[in-house]
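Lab notebook, bench 4. The sequencing result for the construct came back, and we need a structural model before the next group meeting so we can plan mutations. Quick request posted to the team channel:

Model the 3D structure of this chain.
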Amino acid sequence: MSTTSPDTTNGKVALVTGAGTGIGRAVALELLARGYQVVLAGRRGELLEETRARAGAASGRALAVATDVTREDSIDALFERLRATYGRLDVLFNNAGRGAPAVPIDELPVAVWREVVEVNLTGMFLCAQSAIRLMKRQNPKGGRIINNGSIAAYTPRPLSIAYTATKHAVTGLTKAISLDCRKDNIACGQIDIGNAATDMTERMANGVLQADGSTKAEPRMDVAHVARAVANMAELPLDTNVQFMTIMATTMPYVGRG
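Done. Here's the predicted structure in token form:
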């Protein structure tokens, strides 16, 4: 953990989407503990305020902005508020995402497919696009974007086509941003997370469907480890980048383990 005093700023500004719960909340609190000024974005303002309250003495460096990442006007309003308050952006943790019911492909409603794509892919693109516009024009120029991928960016779980397809697409988004924005001193990397202990993964402790048709409980890891990993990526100088990082519960069923 950082030894930064809660009331001390490091001069850097971070934006965390999906900051009201889970991984987003943990990362926001870790960045605040390390001295960042942090903009908390998410759909539910009351959850953002809860995150802000949990920061304790560092809460004065947190700005909560209720945001729907699927709406361009909402993203525009978020970045206008960010610019008016801080004038620049050093780090975007592009984290907001959602899953879908575990059903066979032929039973997944197209409306649900579109909702997952809108949040997990289009929303991530819109946030990255606005961040890039600001980072290219600010002085000093540049910044860092960290996209939240998933183990699903590499291999699917059973009955997860919408989530898996969007997380594979996030990898393409990360690579394209990393390539196209080099000239503007913008670094882009991706963290792929397996079984962080959040509300989203509680069901895994009770047992989830495996590829062989069995149902098994899966190990989870403390979300604080993910938060520290993201913060460590964020704190690298811009001439250094973690392109992809995988962090996972050691004995979860992946790459032959478990």
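The chain has a mean pLDDT of 94.
Will bring this to the meeting.
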